[in-house]
Design a protein that fits this description.
Residues 156-304 form the CdaR GGDEF-like domain. Residues 356-412 form the PucR C-terminal helix-turn-helix domain. Helix content is 55%, strand content 14%. It is an alpha+beta fold. The strands form two sheets. It has a five-stranded antiparallel β-sheet, sandwiched between helices. A five-stranded mixed β-sheet has the order 7-8-6-9-10. A hairpin with a 5-residue loop joins strand 1 (33-36) and strand 2 (42-45). Helix 1 (12-29) packs antiparallel against helix 4, helix 11 packs across helix 15 (401-417) and helix 12 (352-364) packs across helix 15 (401-417). The longest helix is centred in the N-terminal third of the chain and has 43 residues, at 106-148. The radius of gyration is 32 Å and the shape is elongated. The two termini are 38 Å apart.
């Protein structure tokens, strides 16, 4: 990634800044100020009529990289030049990118010139840093895109690894990908646009983008390890490749997910403090670039499945949704037939919702009467009554493991086929 050594003086924003610096400085010191590009052409001036003219004295200053003064006699022999002092302007990399000049007695205006020169150079360095950061962010987003489309045996793993290394990726470390989706952000954006529609000053889109940048900053404050990689993927989505620890010092990779989840819960708290919420997906621990690509895709599947089944924001780990992940790949026609054959008679009953909750709780509670009754806030005799009712209605005995497995899977499929939460 290369930091540009020469500003684009044709950029309207940069030219406006040059004009503002020239005008504001002139108002304070009482002398005319100009700023030129490397060809000596004036790009900013307290006297706007001079913009676009050649300031010939700047050519020697730029070529020799040192300041000079111009007397009245010398000025008469130089095109577009008035008596005063001229200094070169340097970029962050040290190259000369233009000049600045102040009209007046050299001894009087020289101290002002050095201050103005420094002010302009600070402006340019800030822009160079901004362009460098924006360029790096763009390249990072391209890398994430390539990671998301990586196909083992087809994609070039060596090239992808080389690109990842530019962002401190270390293939000897265990990584856990994290996908972040701001929940119902469209509503927030709509409210901002509505609130700012008749307000002068800051534009709504600037406010919205500012919130996204703030979220990214919070992500980077939390996931701030030496090998962590994070960026805004698109719109209101973010991604983190959390470098947990070197594999050789981490004998239990599953613990990496626990560590990652703790950081993610902290992130959700900070997002909530901003008046927003998020759904977060966590992939499985990955070692190596191919494994990382697969786990990255898992993080987004975990997020999608979590939102689908839980109908809201939260933290969703792929390991908690392996069954849901598997059934989501089943052909729709097979899913429909399985659900219909397993649940048809029960779904026709008026107390279907109660029976459905009983089946789910019975399976998730380890087929325990006590635990099922506790979760449903029922007496155990009521649970027994419902289990018997299910057997009478459908012929399914929930004390049989395979029957429970079929019904539980059918419930998941039914939920998967149903409508998701609206955002």
């Amino acid at each position: 990634m290369v930091i540009k050594s020469r500003p684009n003086w044709s950029d309207s924003t940069l030219r406006r800044h040059a004009m503002e610096i020239a005008r504001s400085t002139s108002d304070v010191i009482g002398y005319n100020v100009i700023i030129t590009d490397t060809d000596g052409v004036i790009v900013g001036a307290s006297d706007e009529n001079r913009v676009g003219e050649l300031h010939e004295a700047s050519l020697a200053v730029i070529a020799e990289r040192r300041g000079s003064s111009t007397s009245e006699d010398e000025a008469r022999g130089l095109k577009g030049t008035l008596p005063g002092v001229t200094y070169p302007i340097s970029s962050m990399s040290g190259s000369v990118v233009g000049s600045m000049a102040i009209t007046g007695d050299a001894d009087k205006v020289r101290p002002f010139a050095l201050i103005v020169k420094k002010q302009i150079e600070i402006l340019l360095k800030e822009r160079e840093f901004f362009e460098h950061a924006a360029n790096r962010e763009h390249i990072l987003q391209d890398f994430i895109q390539d990671l998301s489309t990586f196909v083992p045996g087809v994609s070039n793993e060596t090239i992808l690894l080389a690109r990842a290394s530019e962002f401190r990726y270390d293939r000897t470390w265990i990584y856990v990908p994290v996908a972040v989706d701001l929940y119902q952000f469209g509503r927030f954006a709509l409210s901002v646009r509505r609130d700012y529609v008749n307000r002068e000053g800051e534009k709504p889109e600037t406010v919205i983008q500012g919130v996204k940048r703030k979220i990214l900053l919070e992500i980077r404050r939390i996931f701030n390890g030496p090998k962590d990689i994070s960026t805004m993927e698109s719109n209101n989505r973010f991604v983190v490749l959390h470098g947990v620890r070197p594999a050789e010092s981490y004998p239990a990779p599953s613990n990496a997910v626990t560590v990652t989840r703790e950081k993610t819960e902290d992130l959700l708290g900070r997002i909530t403090d901003e008046g927003l919420n998020a759904a977060v997906g966590i992939g499985s621990p990955a070692l190596g670039i191919a494994d990382l690509a697969a786990s990255y895709k898992e993080s987004w599947r975990a997020l999608t499945l979590g939102k689908k089944f839980m109908q809201g924001p939260g933290v969703y780990c792929i390991d908690d949704y392996r069954l849901e992940e598997m059934i989501s790949t089943v052909a729709p026609s097979v899913r429909n037939r399985f659900v219909l054959s397993s649940l048809r008679t029960l779904r026709e009953e008026p107390d279907w919702n109660e029976l459905k909750d009983t089946i789910r709780s019975w399976c998730e509670s380890g087929f325990s009467l006590v635990n099922t009754a506790k979760e449903l806030h029922l007496h155990r005799n009521t649970v027994i009554y419902r289990l018997d009712k299910i057997k009478v209605y459908s012929g399914h005995d929930l004390r049989n493991f395979r029957t429970c497995l079929n019904l539980y899977t059918a419930l998941l499929l039914d939920r998967f086929l149903g409508p998701g939460s609206k955002e």
